[in-house]
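Researcher: Next sequence.
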Amino acid sequence: MAPFEAARRVLHEAAAARVFPGAVVEAGTRRRVLWREACGRLTFEPSAPSARDDTIFDLASLTKVLATSLIAMRLADDGRLDLDAPVADLVPAWPAEAERGRVRVVDLLAHASGLPAHRPYYETCEGREAFAAALATEGLEYEPRSRSVYSDLGFILLGFALERLEGVPLDAQFERLRGPLGAAGALPGEAEAPLAIGFGVPADAPGRVAPTRADAVPPDRVHDENAAALGGVAGHAGLFGTVAAVGAAARAMLGAVEAGTTGPRLASRPMAARFTSRAGVPGSSRALGWDTMLPSSSCGTRMSPRAFGHTGFTGTSLWIDPAAGLYVVQLTNRVYPGGGTAEDIREFRRALHDAVMADGTSSNRAG
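Model: Next structure:
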């Protein structure tokens, strides 16, 4: 059987079943790309352009780990961010009294702040100050750190905290990170090039964006409505990128957590380990920003307990397994009308990751 033939079959069968219009997948190691393949079209129309290696996808909640969490990790590693600082010290609108006063930056990263998962603030709020005021009065659903509830609201608040700390917008902070990210994730012998990832889409690139809507809304408008109301720049969503750029970020994270890594590092190994290890919240698999391996999750059953990753609502996913030395990037626009359900994309991810890990582990050993 050809390398990654089983994973290729999973990918093409999902496209044929209309789980998504188009997809691009990349699997690799710290030192090389093992497999990359594009499949399907940008929409379900037979005349639509084919998905390609350079197709740009709305990364959705991968923003949480590839932008917001990485910025926080770098700032903490540099001694500029105290992860145990009360949120009220960084966001003036956030009350310093009672339960809210006990919420720390690390609680936002671990989805353990007490904030609910989501609210449609875009219906009533416009701009950062209005969102911050709404968050400040949002009722907490549970005592901070008593459990974990995956929360877009917590990461919106975290984005505001990082902006206040640095006095620089989140997208500008990410632009400062792109250079170190590209350097740490560069393949051996490959000239560094600007990573095709960022908040929003370059002016010359909308034709390469995989749309998430069939209406007149431009494909380069972020799918998440709260992020759109924040100008496309938010702690929970807003990044667009190619599979190669996300793959470079995965290699950078592998280099950060692996022992003996040479060359540029995204962060010190202890800090990277803290961000990718479970945060210790009761009943939770969450690390700081990242999720960790559970056999029942989207990563499938073959990754090691050291694996960490994240998914995005639009149909994106990134999982990294340091024990195997492998990463898997999967980008789709499954939310395009006519695409599959959340359960369909979940089962596709599980099957894909299991197939990649079965073949990728032996390919990694051979290389």
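Model: Residues 315 and 332 are 5 Å apart (CA to CA). The longest strand covers residues 33-40.
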